[in-house]
Amino acid sequence: MTATDHRSHGLAGDEIAPDWPPLETAEVRALLDNFPRLRGPVSIQWRSPRPLSAAARVTTVAGEVFVKRHHANVRTPDTLSEEHAFIAHLRTHGIPMPEVLANAKDRTAIACGEWTYEVHAIADGIDLYRDTISWAPLTDIEQARTAGRMLARLHHASASFEAPQRDTWILVSRDDCLRAPDLLATIDAQCKQRPALADYLRQRDWRHELASLVARHHAVQPRLTDLPRLWTHNDWHASNLCWTSAASDAAISAVLDVGLAAPTFALYDLATAIERNAIAWMQLEHGMHATFPDTARALIDGYADVLPLTSDQRQLLADLLPVVHIDFALSEIEYFHGVTGSTAHADVAYDTFLRGHAAWFDSTSGRAMCEAIRATS
Question: By C-alpha distance, which of 66, 252, 7 is closest to 152?
């Protein structure tokens, strides 16, 4: 595929022109010339369809590497280095993550003009779901159980990682609003530091429009205040895992992409994994056929094989599902309105994601999903 042919995943499950220009061969070669082992001819083998950055598998004289480019308004070298520190910790504690490569100046997050780059070793195993949209459900129950076990292993490894909160809200899945006792007051206070979010919300009657979300949040928040902080993955989807084979009993050979990682709490990450893997958000018109409670139960059971869950934790997990997305939805609004300048995409993040996801859990299908999780207690 050439750069001009490249398409990315759209918010409606379609393929659209990418927000960011695809990586070009000359650009990649200039970047990799600063990595002594990688200097020489390069060839782009595959471009990622993920929409929030530009990434590609690249063949070099020393083998393949994975190159990713972010706009500086999304990731600075300092912000990206937060992710790299988390990866390094997880690798030393037994989580199979590709190494982040350093250039001749020993830098892993590299600024060049308006861009910030990172280069990773190629992940071990088979990238079974590399072209799968991030909201597509994982229907292989045994793989879901295996994914749950690996998520628990990651949390066990993360427990000893100490680092402050991320220095950005953009495209990071934090839990500031979720933990706060007053959701609307917290959003209002954050707007003073987040001008793009403030500008978007000024155009909406957001305090009134978020009333039902506030009620759900109010019912859950008191149970979150004492939960210990833990750096979490926050995008635990099948497309961010590689496997030893395509079989149901395959092991996970690599964990990918901690771009949304932040200090939250363990059930936050597990609830997000259920939201990502057990609900076909692009096909909600199919009703009960768009929900996969067996996948949710398998994720939970696999997780509990490694880190047992109490009955109260499982009940809280079900109650978290309608609100766990709040902080990330706000970050997407900020990104689309303030960085890419797409009002249409910001509207989807606000109406379909922030408000719509929570509202869906009032539907028959949404209530059934939560009950399926409660029934695992």
Answer: 252
Measured CA to CA, the distance from residue 176 to residue 276 in angstroms comes to 20
pLDDT digits (tens, 9 = 90+) for 138-169: 999 999 999 999 999 999 999 999 999 999 99
**Collapsed DSSP state (helix, strand, coil) of residue 324:** coil
H/E stretch holding 255: strand 252-255
Report the side by side order of strands in the sheet with 63-71.
43-47, 54-60, 63-71, 115-121, 110-112
- Read off φ and ψ for residue 45, nearest 5 degrees: -95, -30
Distance CA 345, CA 18 (A): 13
Please give the single-letter amino acid code of residue 62. A
Residue range 4-52, pLDDT digits in tens: 564 444 444 545 566 889 999 999 999 999 999 999 999 999 998 887 8
- Of the chain, the end-to-end C-alpha distance in Å amounts to 48
Integer-rounded Cα Rg, in Å, for the chain is: 20
Give the HSE-up count for residue 260: Cα atoms under 13 Å, Cβ half-sphere. 22
> Tokens 């459900």 — which residue?
137
pTM of the model: 0.93
